[in-house]
Amino acid sequence: MWSIVLLICSLPVSGALSAEKKVAGIVGRAITINCSYDKQYQQNMKYWCHGWTNQCTYVVRTNDPEGQQGRMSIKDNKAQGVFIVTMENLHREDAGWYSCGIDRPGLDLKFALMLQVSYESVSIPVLKFTSPPNVSCSGGSVSISCESVWGSPPIYYKWYESTSEISDTNKLDLHCQSFKQQNHQYYCTARNQQAIKDSEMVKVSVINRSVNNCNYVVEISSIGKYYFKQTVKFF
What we know:
CATH superfamily of the largest domain: Immunoglobulins
Helix content: under 10%
Number of helices: 0
Number of domains: 2
Strand content: over 45%
Structural class: mainly beta
């Protein structure tokens, strides 16, 4: 005698839960993943887990306090039928398989995706005055900042005059007391694990200098030429 056993499995419904199959992030930055779902699951608990099997490890769930666990957060937009996962300050070790998940009786709905995490080289640092340059400046110093628009942190900055290092910050302070000759040239470097990049040149020309004041011109190709007058007392 033969027996027939009918197995009924609760399988994910096609289109009921979806996301991008592969996402790419940058070390030190945040990444956002949108998990779209059928609106019949509006009231179900949503989660983000590490792995792609039924035994994947919960990372963050919508019923966690404020939907957050450490660097991970989740928000459920029921009206749009999407829950949004944000991973802050990505580490290289965060790479791997993850799943968007919806809790339901029987077998949970899951959608597996691959997260790739890579380092990003620094970009050529951009120079700018820390405050809008004026046609004159009385006392104090003129400051120029140097910053890469992108690149995986940490990013380290240094300022040089010719080949001599003069500062290990991203800020250059120009003031009359520091000018030992008529013409000076400065540049900064930005460095991370992947690369080191030089900024454009900052050219300074001293027009005249007396006991109580000095006049000089700062030229940066991408910004232009600016005239400064500083009233100081030289000792």
